[in-house]
Task: structure prediction
Amino acid sequence: MEEFGVCALTGEECDLRESHIYPKFMFETMKKLGGTNFRISNIPNKVLQDGLKRRLLGHNAEQKFSKSEKWFAETIFRPYCFDMSLLSKPITYDENLYYFIVSVLWRVLYVYLKDTVNIDGRFKNDLIEAEKEWKCYLLNKKIPEHYDKLYLLPLGNNSISSNYLLMEGQEYYNLRTFDAALAFDDTGAKSAFYCKCPRFAFWGVLSDQYDENINYGLRIKPEGGKFSLKKWRLGEWYIIGFLYGRVNEANKQFLEGQSLLSLNQENQILKNIRRKNGFDSSELADLLIKDYINN
Result:
């Protein structure tokens, strides 16, 4: 159902759609890998059919995103989910990858700024200005002046850097979880906006005043380039510590949500999940057993 209002991207008055904050193809792919619905971990009784939505964008704005979403889904996301051969060859990309990452970062940051009550004052202005620059780029392809450094971080499929060791719940987090947060070091001199979907995280650098070459994963250039999903390494321990913290937070929310369920509710949810044909041999079944049910 549509509702008349102002599009968050174009500023035009139009019929607003219930727009996906994270692209719909991600949820469709996750269903193929096990599960029919999605749940918010700390609100386990809330069921989502295909991900978080907001009445945010009009038709024209959504059309702007469609080309780069199709490119990312077909060139990187689905092959990475289903075909390990993607790890054995370099990937050539064009401006679609940069545009796609900005489109996801902008949508998530826009919602983050609207929903977060207490934003750390040290970074609030950077977040607001990054949202403006990313929005401008999405509208007219003007490369961001200050917030142009974007990184892609592959997660899962054994591509993870050797200095990021496995911990309880990490595989489930890497392969199935959506997340967003502000990352920064102890001094506040280095910061980035972090946005995670299954198997990938995206970083938009906010500040790096003491180091121009902080390594958040694979640097993505606006004009295109080439990279390997295996040949990279995280370069900052503050980033690794941040990722561990996000896994711990996801585990905490999972346990909090589990505590809200009675044993009968928990069994019913598991029964509903397992009704899907082929579930017992799916990725989701393996992760639930490995990361949670046996712990």
Q: What stands out?
A: The chain has eight helices and twelve strands. Confidence is low (pLDDT under 50) at residues 41-48, 159-163, 291-295. The first strand starts at residue 3 and ends at 6.
